[in-house]
Amino acid sequence: MSQGKIYRADYSTAKDARVHQTRAAIRKAFLNLLDQKPLDQITVREIATEAAIGYTTFFRHHPSKEELLNEIAAAEIQNLIELALSVLGPNDSREAALAMCGYVAEHRALWSTLLTGGAASVLRDEFVRLSLQVAAAWQGSDETIPAELGVILVTSGTIELLAWWLKQKDPMPVDKIAAIFDSAVVSPIIRPS
Amino acid sequence: MSQGKIYRADYSTAKDARVHQTRAAIRKAFLNLLDQKPLDQITVREIATEAAIGYTTFFRHHPSKEELLNEIAAAEIQNLIELALSVLGPNDSREAALAMCGYVAEHRALWSTLLTGGAASVLRDEFVRLSLQVAAAWQGSDETIPAELGVILVTSGTIELLAWWLKQKDPMPVDKIAAIFDSAVVSPIIRPS
Amino acid sequence: MSQGKIYRADYSTAKDARVHQTRAAIRKAFLNLLDQKPLDQITVREIATEAAIGYTTFFRHHPSKEELLNEIAAAEIQNLIELALSVLGPNDSREAALAMCGYVAEHRALWSTLLTGGAASVLRDEFVRLSLQVAAAWQGSDETIPAELGVILVTSGTIELLAWWLKQKDPMPVDKIAAIFDSAVVSPIIRPS
Amino acid sequence: MSQGKIYRADYSTAKDARVHQTRAAIRKAFLNLLDQKPLDQITVREIATEAAIGYTTFFRHHPSKEELLNEIAAAEIQNLIELALSVLGPNDSREAALAMCGYVAEHRALWSTLLTGGAASVLRDEFVRLSLQVAAAWQGSDETIPAELGVILVTSGTIELLAWWLKQKDPMPVDKIAAIFDSAVVSPIIRPS
DNA sequence: CTCTAATCGAGACGGTACGTCGCGTCTTACG
DNA sequence: CGTAAGACGCGACGTACCGTCTCGATTAGAG
User: How many CB pairs under 8 A join A and B?
Assistant: First the structure.
């Protein structure tokens, strides 16, 4: 509370409708701007104006725009990550690839923004970070490629592939990209020839 | 000349010894700092202080710290890129991989800074940019993977692999990493099973 | 609003107490410094430090230190100028001279700073400017001396006389200086022999 | 010589033709620029470029642009000052006034620049300074007006009158302005009614 | 249905870094 | 081998955002 900082309540448990409204407005405005320019060219004032809220109010909800991006990215990735990592498991990776690409395609607008809107590198780091966490116990099928490196290569490749995919004017169908994903990104790591 | 900017001579053809001294000092100081923290936490004043030059002098040589990084990265990558892309050619990719990894190992200090010091994303983008340029004419061996995507995946994978490698306390031998590089990054793209 | 400049509210109608506080502090600090050295040896940072405000805050209130001086000078002169110009009217100039000198004497500290502290030339120009404005309609009692020239000579002479007076260690009494003022500065212009 | 300063020979006794050439070029370029804008908007680089000499060369001849102006002003004033002060003597002031105005009229271009080109205040100060020096021994014809104040008022009035005169598009004839000068500036001081 | 506390808008403020400008010194390379 | 060209250190400038803080105004939801 009075820790020499701005007043910042615990909005995570807030029940006030205004809070949700505000947070949604911020999120929407932010993604909107991310569409247009990279993170470091966006100012907090812009976000606030775009969201039609007071400048100070932004900080009541997020410590900084970087943190906001992390929050959004983490939340979104959380959904994707199990799909992506299940691919590394013993299950049918082809199917998992399809599932993942399908998921991204369904949320194309959001992911397009995240991946091609100037937030890619942040997202990538967050993705790798989360993946490493989740896959801490994961063991590669052999010793050729160290587990950590494997995770990095797969996640990194995933991001790149998705970013490229979403950037296309005339994008490939899901099954085609899933096939490439499986053969060019996943298989080489988990099933080294 | 008087283009509303700081006085900035044509240093590319400069013969004054001081110019080279200054530029070297800036470069050294900059890489030094990049070792410690990411680009956006480094101020031009820090660089100037570290290089023992005047603040203004920095801008007489480089428009901004971002541009400086690009210059350094571009120059260094230029050396690497032919090795990396020759891998995509019809020649013995195993050998090329070895050559490339060897090159990086020889310049370990510099590359370590570039890849793990907070400049990785810039370097990656620059790498991809240059690769796409150079490989504009390159044609994938089949139609499964679009050429552009192939280049992106290879370069991206290369960066990640090298970054991981250089980050290790007890790094793999060159031939081992080259083998992984070839089998996990290069082959899947240029020789899809 | 976003006119490519620093954020600058409409302070003229401000009701915030802080604004008045800040402006007063700036004004005081500025006059303080003007006491010690001419305008162009005073930096905005000095003013800010002296006023115990942030550097940027200065610009939120005044476009530049020159402008600040103009504002102060104009405001102060506005008080004096009617006295000075009434002297040019048909009324008893001797009395008016006394009134004006008395006014300056009463605000000796401020005027001393303005006239002898390195701001004299700015003040002179502002004085002439305002006088010409006010006296646009004024008609000299004859055609010997053009009206504009008359105003210039009187205001200029006034400034010089006051500056000299305030600079003296052992200043003349008000009535004496007023007499000189009338006979040496005013009369020759409005009552050419 | 080696006093930790720039190399600066004693050019006052120089016989090298180049020296005179350079000095003349500087002087000419400087007055040229003064015609267009006030002193503090003129940079040394501009003067050097205009004079077609090297930037450093300027400093070999003048410590600063301010000093240069002072030198020029002092030299020019020196010619005028005896005329102006002779007016304060017991001789026929009417004639002296005519002489002085005539002198200025003959050098109109130069004086116009000095008085109306943005150097007026510097010139004024220099004028007063020199006048006070020269007139140190001068004694006013009575005690009404202190000598120092008298000198200040006369010189100041002189400057203002000349500046106004030269600024006119359709200037008065010399004899007319001389008459005004005598009656409005000189007489009131040396012949108080 | 009220009133009380959470939430918000507005915006002044202290800071830090930016990139520009001009000064005046010092060094170098060239003629 | 001296001098013109210009690289350099210095420090002020004015701008852009940052994140903190204070003040009211509003409004939701608990009593």
Answer: 61
Q: Say if residues C183 and D192 touch (Cβ distance below 8 Å).
A: yes
CA–CA gap between residue C59 and residue C68 (Å, rounded): 10
Top-tier CATH class for B2-62: mainly alpha
Show me where the domains of chain B are located.
Answer: 2-62, 67-190
Reply yes or no on whether the pLDDT at D192 is more than 60: yes
- Name, in order, each residue with C-beta under 8 angstroms of A129's C-beta and a sequence gap of 6 or more: none
Residue A57 has pLDDT above 70, yes or no: yes
User: What's the pLDDT score for residue A7?
Assistant: 63
| Pick from D148, D157, D180: CB nearest C156 | D157
Q: Which of B39, B116, B155, B156 to mutate to test the interface with A (most CBs of A within 10 A)?
A: B156
Nucleotide at minimal C1' distance from the A47 CA: F17
Residue-wise pLDDT for B55-68, tens only, equals 999 999 999 999 99
Q: What is the pTM of this model?
A: 0.84
pLDDT tens, position by position, D79-100: 877 765 565 555 666 777 888 8
Give the pair of three-digit tokens for residue B119. Answer: 């400049």
Asked if residues B42 and B65 have their Cβ atoms less than 8 Å apart, the reply is yes
Nucleotide nearest to A56 (CA to C1'): E9
CATH class of residue range C67-190: mainly alpha
End-to-end CA distance of chain A: 58
